[in-house]
Design brief:
The complex is a heterodimer of chains A (about 200) and B (about 450). Chain A has 5 helices and 7 strands. Chain A has about 200 residues and is α+β, with helices and mostly antiparallel strands. In chain A, strands 1, 2, 3, 4, 5, 6 and 7 form a 7-stranded mixed β-sheet that branches. The model of chain B has no long low-confidence stretch (mean pLDDT about 95). In chain B, the strands form 6 sheets. Chain B has a 9-stranded antiparallel β-sheet with strand order 13-19-18-17-16-15-14-23-22, sandwiched between helices. A 4-stranded antiparallel β-sheet of chain B has the order 5-4-3-6, with no helix packed on it. In chain B, strands 2-11-10 form a 3-stranded antiparallel β-sheet, with no helix packed on it. Chain B has about 450 residues and is of the alpha+beta class. The chains are: A alpha+beta (about 200), B alpha+beta (about 450). Chains A and B meet through strand 2 and helix 5 of A and strand 13, helix 9, helix 12, strand 19 and helix 14 of B. The complex binds FE2/S2 (inorganic) cluster and fe (ii) ion (FE2).
Chain lengths: ~200, ~450
């Protein structure tokens, strides 16, 4: 049993997740479209974005999942669509689609040390390209960004390259800038995938 | 004795030596010549699942698929007739259709512009005069599967002119396909919601082996069971933890088809209650509680959960949970496995949205561990020729098999009954040379 988990906490699925609803899906569809739009006029330099994206990538390369989760707000979405361009998450399955609760499920599963797809664990090195950053204020976020990535991965003597681009919705919080949505668009999202049991 | 030699003669006796009721020789998973034999005797000789009709619902829709490792185009012509066409130009062999799916009344080969109707007939040849007067377009129709049949929307094809009809092939499995389709509720199944696609470095049978393996769960999926126990105090599949003691059974349905029935455990008392919470759970629950009469609430919630059945249709269709899994062998050590997501026609949209989240659960949290083990098996089987056998003898001597109705035999869920059953069918098919034909009208090139 996990020491941090008290029996009382188990009574309710932890953490409760009440924010995945029809309105969120509609908003995500719009955000998807916004990520795809090419609009050089809106791109700006905004403080704190580069460092947040760099830290997020670094935390995943280090498999520092605690600090990584701290970069996400409580009502976050981590989303890897199974199509290119991304289709609506309400109507299609995604390679990954997590609220914070399932994100923690995923992290905790790896943490058991018994996830054989990660034995040995993957080593990754992700290179984020220059992000496009723009202001987009609504009830859920303040800033959006999009950055291409190339990720080298090695596991059990086999090297792979994964590539694509990430779309981000960011929110200014009391703790600083945090991630509301990370959408990972693999360039081969609709092709058969190898062992992607780490986080993208 | 080295079995590698024994299989080169391909006599009945040789097949009986490499596959018995207790063990299977490594060459069955590792020998490219046996793989080639399978592509004829099994993936052309018997019915192979291709797609669900809802993927190509309209006249002139098409989707690319594979019949074994043969690329094919499944088309619906202007009159709604289904065709399974070899995706290979009759001129010089180029792949004609290079898109995954779409709408097309005709297909034009990008190389020299030969144009084919979506029923396979050659319609246009640029500069045709140069071929002389004797040139007959009829001789150059696309190759096709001579037999295409569907059962309740599931489309199958075979190249074997003499195969029994599809209903006979499905046999006892039909009853369970009906149950699988009907227990979801709604007006029918729709396969239009994308898929989880995996490229696995293993022989296709390692996937089929696992589809009826109730033994591996607490070991292969230990991380998932432990996480679920730690975070939620159990639920979801924990009944596999002590599966030898459970009342779950695996069923040999004949013709290589099998079933693991988890429904008794999973729906006791409610599949929804046992399920690991998925994104959107609270919203869905709240809405069902607010909008549905009391007596419909539990069944509505259960529509979003898996079927509790692993229904394995030999050789390449696995109905697991609410997904349609399709096995496509590429080579002896390479296979594509696709989990098509499904929705239900005529139900509230929120049921289908919830089904998307529940159908992501296992591919993300479980399948990658299975895949790692399949690939590890392939490595072991390919690399050490001196170690020749894999074991399929679990519960052979325990006298736990039970005769059920209509010739169905069941065993404990941790039995290797599934492997023994499908390998028996595999062997039957490998022993005969089927009458394979891609030019049924005799329009041989
Ligand atoms: S190869 Fe198709 S037209 Fe020549
Ligand atoms: Fe498994």
């Amino acid at each position: 049993m996990n020491e941090q988990t008290s029996p009382e906490a188990k009574a309710a699925p932890q953490p409760a997740s009440t924010y995945i609803d029809a309105e969120l899906y509609t908003w995500l569809d719009a955000a998807s479209e916004d990520f795809r739009a090419f609009d050089p006029g809106r791109v700006a330099e905004i403080d704190g974005v580069h460092s947040l994206l760099a830290s997020e990538a670094r935390a995943l390369d280090d498999q520092a999942f605690g600090p990584w989760l701290d970069l996400y707000v409580a009502d976050c979405v981590y989303w890897v669509p199974s199509n290119w361009p991304a289709s609506s998450a309400a109507l299609t399955v995604s390679l990954e689609f997590h609220d914070r609760r399932r994100l923690i499920d995923r992290v905790d599963r790896l943490g058991t040390g018994l996830a054989y797809s990660q034995l040995p664990p993957s080593r990754t090195a992700r290179v984020l390209g220059m992000p496009e950053i723009w202001k987009h204020e609504d009830g859920r976020g303040h800033i959006r960004a999009r950055a291409p990535f190339v990720m080298g991965e090695t596991r059990a003597g086999e090297n792979r390259v994964l590539s694509g681009w990430n779309g981000y919705v960011l929110r200014q919080t009391d703790e600083g800038l945090r991630i509301v949505v990370k959408q990972v668009n693999l360039i081969d999202a609709d092709e058969p995938q190898g062992n992607n049991s780490f986080f993208l | 004795m080295n079995m590698e030699l024994a299989t080169t003669d391909r006599t009945d006796g040789a097949w009986d030596q490499v596959v018995t009721d207790t063990r299977v020789h490594r060459s069955v998973y590792a020998d490219p010549s046996i793989f080639q034999h399978e592509m004829a005797s099994i993936f052309a000789g018997t019915w192979v699942y291709l797609l669900h009709e809802s993927e190509i619902p309209n006249a002139n829709d098409f989707r690319a698929a594979r019949l074994g490792s043969r690329p094919v185009i499944v088309t619906r012509d202007a009159k709604n007739q289904l065709h399974v066409l070899m995706n290979r130009c009759t001129h010089r062999g180029a792949t004609i259709c290079r898109e995954k799916s779409g709408q097309a009344a005709t297909f034009t080969c990008p190389y020299h512009g030969w144009r084919f109707k979506n029923d396979g007939k050659l319609m246009g040849v640029p500069g045709r005069d140069a071929y002389g007067n004797a040139f007959s377009r009829d001789r150059f129709s696309l190759g096709r599967a001579p037999r295409v049949e569907s059962y309740r929307g599931f489309v199958f094809a075979t190249l074997n002119q003499e195969a029994p009809d599809l209903e006979t092939h499905l046999g006892q499995a039909r009853f369970f396909i009906d149950q699988w389709l009907d227990q979801g509720g709604g007006d029918g199944l729709v396969v239009q919601s994308s898929a989880h696609r995996f490229h696995l470095k293993c022989n296709w049978k390692l996937i089929f082996d696992n589809a009826g393996d109730g033994y591996h769960v607490p070991f292969s999926h230990q991380s998932l069971l432990k996480m679920t126990a730690d975070r939620y105090g159990g639920g979801d599949m924990t009944y596999f933890g002590d599966a030898d003691k459970s009342s779950m059974r695996v069923y040999d349905l004949g013709n290589g088809h099998t079933l693991i029935d988890q429904r008794e455990e999973m729906y006791n008392p409610s599949a929804w209650k046992q399920q690991r919470p998925q994104p959107g759970r609270e919203t869905f629950e709240g809405s069902v509680a607010a909008r549905k009469p009391q007596d419909e609430q539990s069944s509505t919630l259960d529509m979003a959960v898996g079927s509790g059945m692993n229904l394995n249709i030999f050789p390449n269709l696995l109905l697991i949970g609410n997904q349609i899994q399709v096995i496509e062998p590429l080579s002896v050590g390479e296979t594509i496995l696709t989990w098509y997501a499904t929705t239900l026609d005529g139900v509230d949209e929120e049921v289908n949205v919830m089904r998307m989240r529940t159908q992501e659960d296992f591919p993300i949290l479980g399948e990658t561990d299975d895949a790692a083990n399949f690939e590890a098996c392939q490595q072991g089987l390919m690399s050490i020729p001196e170690e020749e056998w894999v074991d399929i003898s679990r519960h052979v001597t325990t006298n736990t098999d039970r005769a059920e109705r209509d010739g169905i035999v069941s065993g404990p869920v941790t039995s290797d009954l599934h492997l023994r059953a499908y390998f028996r069918r595999w062997k039957e098919l490998m022993k005969v040379k089927p009458n394979i034909q891609t030019r049924p009208e005799g329009d041989a090139q």
